Amino acid sequence: TLGGLKGEVGKPTDTIDGKHIVLSGNIEFKREMAMITENGGAGVGLFRTEFFYLRDNALPTEAEQAQTYAEVAAACEEHGVIIRTFDLGGDKLPNSPFDGPEPNPFLGWRGIRVSLGRPEVFKTQLRAILRASAHGKIRIMFPMVASPEEVVQAKQILEAAKAELIDEELPFDENIEVGAMIEIPSAALVADLIAPHVDFFSVGTNDLTQYTLAVDRVNDRVAPLFRSTHTGVVRLLQHVVKAAHDAGIWVGVCGETAGDPTFTPLLVGMGVDELSVGPRQILTIRHAIRQLDSSECAKLVQRLVAGASTDRIEEDCRAMAMRCY
Ligand code: PEP
Ligand code: MG
After folding, report:
1. The whole model's pTM is what?
2. Helix H or strand E segment including 46
3. Atom of ligand 1 nearest to the CA of 206
4. Which of 12, 78, 120, 261 is the most buried (most CB within 10 A)?
5. Is 254 a catalytic residue?
6. In sequence order, which ranges of 225-309 are alpha helices (DSSP H)?
7. ipTM computed for the complex
8. 144 Cα–ligand 2 center, Å
9. What is the pLDDT of residues 72-103, one digit of tens each?
């Protein structure tokens, strides 16, 4: 129970063999910050900015965005916030704000595709993020990246936004870090080619699982087939972690699996550096991490990728997770 987990507040998020995992929170609204702070989370690992549009049914102004981003950054103190640029389309907004309905929105105009297709809207958001970065620690992250070229293009627009602010003599963090979400199988497969362009990866297991298994993440009929422990998904994840570390960058996971203690042994075993979870899950996951031995976890991953049945591994994961409670 949560009451029983209160003892986890303020504890270091380290495995029993001393591997530190950064544990931060996912938010959509500023007010959700309170629970992250209360539970001692390391800032915000995913700020879903679509809420602006979903709330107002209109795109926010630069000033409005800059104000919200700066407020969240201030609340995150030294840990900072990872602001994800608009991920409109798909489940967030089946009907894009720019266009009519699509026959297959999950395979349609979504995330970075919309941003690159509407560079003025994108640049306004990037200017707002940059302006807020003068007031607190902020990182930027692009959603739904499929190939390195999209990251390069997005960064060109970021550079243009920076140049404008310099002209206007508006301050911003010139060393702001940029990350790519890895949530499309092609991006996972070319993670080594994307890595040189970014400072970090954050794996979106909700979409990565959906696209790898061809299982709609919001369709109840196929919900039993939606398994992030599928050997195929885990092999991809393992590939992403290796590509990140080979390139000297860190890699986090911000999909729902990060907040489910059943998966914690696998994520720790793969060497993930950061987990960003629902604010309510912070203490549960901290507790789980603190009970695990990373080499034992790595063996579990090895068995799974070598072909041990997913059911069996899930059972073992649960046993490990149960041991935690
Ligand atoms: C994901 O896809 O796992 C993710 C974190 O992003 P979202 O759920 O917002 O698509
Ligand atoms: Mg996603």
Report:
1. 0.95
2. strand 44-48
3. 3
4. 261
5. yes
6. 231-246, 264-270, 282-291, 294-305
7. 0.99
8. 7
9. 999 999 999 999 999 988 777 655 566 677 88
